[in-house]
Design goal:
- The chain is mainly alpha-helical and 159 residues long.
- 81% of the residues lie in helices and 0% in strands.
- The chain has six helices and no strands.
- The protein starts with 8 loop residues before the first helix and ends with a helix.
- 8% of the residues are buried.
Length: 159
């Protein structure tokens, strides 16, 4: 019986459950990335492929490191149990926290880059006007027309 169920099953259960927790958290990070940036079919396929390759490598290294390379059938089961336990418990808390974190990061970046956006807005407008077909051949009036679109009264230009 010791061949099928060795005496260190409790530590194997805890270790492989922690590996399952880690893999489920990694899955949540991939899922969160898809929620933020969107995912097309090819991107989703590549991300899923990378996740499963990383999961397999992590599982095999965990078996080698935590159990001296001795693979037992129940270790995969324990890893799946840890994965499922995380998905039904902590995942419901982690995803909203990640969403909150992304909102905070977006607000901080918006606050930090707002002065730069105000500085570059006229240049973007001039570039758009240069690119558009509505302004024709006169180069000296081109810049003036773009700037006059930004400042309709014209008084800000002369000062």
């Amino acid at each position: 019986m010791e061949i099928l169920f060795p005496p260190n099953q409790a530590t194997a259960f805890l270790n492989m459950s922690i590996v399952g927790f880690f893999l489920a958290f990694l899955y949540d990070l991939f899922k969160f990335k898809h929620m933020l940036f969107g995912a097309g079919f090819i991107t989703l396929f590549i991300d899923d492929f990378l996740f499963w390759c990383f999961s397999a490598i992590t599982f095999l290294f965990s078996v080698f490191i935590l159990n001296n390379g001795i693979f037992r059938w129940y270790e995969l089961l324990f890893c799946v149990i840890g994965f499922i336990f995380y998905r039904f418990t902590l995942s419901k808390l982690v995803i909203p926290l990640l969403k909150l974190l992304s909102r905070v990061i977006k607000q901080v970046l918006t606050f930090l880059f707002a002065p730069f956006m105000l500085l570059f807005k006229p240049f973007v407008r001039v570039f758009y006007c240069l690119k558009s077909k509505r302004l024709l051949n006169k180069h000296k009036n081109l810049i003036y027309r773009c700037i006059s679109d930004l400042y309709p009264s014209g008084s800000e230009i002369n000062e």
